[in-house]
Amino acid sequence: MGWIGESIESIKSLQIRQVLTQGVSLGMIVTSALIIWKALMCITGSESPVVVVLSGSMEPGFKRGDILFLHMSKDPIRAGEIVVFNVDGREIPIVHRVIKVNILLTLFFELTIQPCCL
Question: pTM of whole model > 0.70?
Answer without folding.
Answer: no
